[in-house]
Amino acid sequence: MLDTFVSFDRKLRLPDGCSMADAFVRVEKKAGVKLSRCLAESEVVAESILLNGERVPLPRLSKTTLSDGDEVSVLSPLAGG
Predict the structure, then answer these.
(1) pTM for the full model?
(2) What is the pLDDT of residue 78?
């Protein structure tokens, strides 16, 4: 799992028909983040993927096509007391 906080707040140019899974691969390359490993190793992170504010289950990433203006977020798990 990632042991540091990474912020990737950029717009990406993606080809038509790009899936969320494709976009994550591009973010990994541009930001140098092992996002796919983090998603595979952490159920908490895998359950906190959002598309335009709506949760997207991990199995649907490759089937969910992005459109112009979509916003994808992966929320960081929080802990505290």
Answers:
(1) 0.75
(2) 67
